[in-house]
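[recover] target loaded
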């Protein structure tokens, strides 16, 4: 009886630790030739070390089709999220502000909702004022799988910046540390294609 209570207490404590840690929990190993921040939440990949373009597609909240090949030539910011994720909710205003800041530069922002229905994703967008679209990836996880071979979105939220060729330039695992951090990664990707 005492062993059973102890095992139950340990399991409950472990579950509580996971819940208190938020939504992020994963290995943060990046591709060869990448550099990571001291805490491994940010990975940057030099142009010479980037893999093939990451090709992905899916249905948006409004059932329209989205395809990454349509955005070739643009820097793309991909944010993996779901509505009940506390860090996702916390970073939503920063992502929207950055979208508005970089839209004139042609930067594309696309969300990838990994758990919710289109109706839930739309309600989240309305509540938090998100104006860029999200792919609903809960059923087949095809977008998550497209990234898995090169720079997996190992946790939620994860934000990945793609260069103009569709190759991963940077990944932030967990809530973006600040607008300035993501803005710098976007600016770096934009500068690569500046003529």
């Amino acid at each position: 009886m005492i062993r059973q209570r102890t095992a139950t207490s340990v399991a409950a404590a472990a579950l509580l630790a996971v819940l208190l840690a938020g939504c992020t929990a994963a290995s943060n190993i990046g591709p060869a030739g990448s550099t990571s921040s001291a805490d491994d939440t940010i990975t940057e990949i030099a142009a010479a070390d980037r893999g093939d373009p990451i090709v992905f597609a899916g249905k948006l909240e409004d059932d329209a089709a989205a395809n990454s090949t349509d955005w070739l030539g643009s820097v793309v910011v991909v944010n993996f999220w779901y509505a009940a994720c506390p860090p996702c909710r916390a970073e939503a205003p920063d992502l929207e502000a950055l979208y508005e800041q970089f839209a004139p530069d042609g930067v594309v922002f696309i969300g990838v909702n990994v758990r919710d229905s289109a109706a839930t994703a739309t309600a989240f967008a309305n509540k938090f004022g998100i104006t860029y679209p999200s792919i609903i990836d809960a059923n087949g996880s095809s977008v998550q799988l497209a990234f898995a071979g090169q720079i997996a979105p190992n946790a939620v939220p994860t934000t990945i910046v793609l260069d103009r060729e569709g190759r991963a330039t940077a990944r932030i695992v967990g809530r973006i540390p600040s607008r300035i951090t993501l803005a710098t990664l976007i600016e770096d990707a934009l500068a690569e294609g500046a003529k």
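[recover] notes: The chain has one domain: 24-192.
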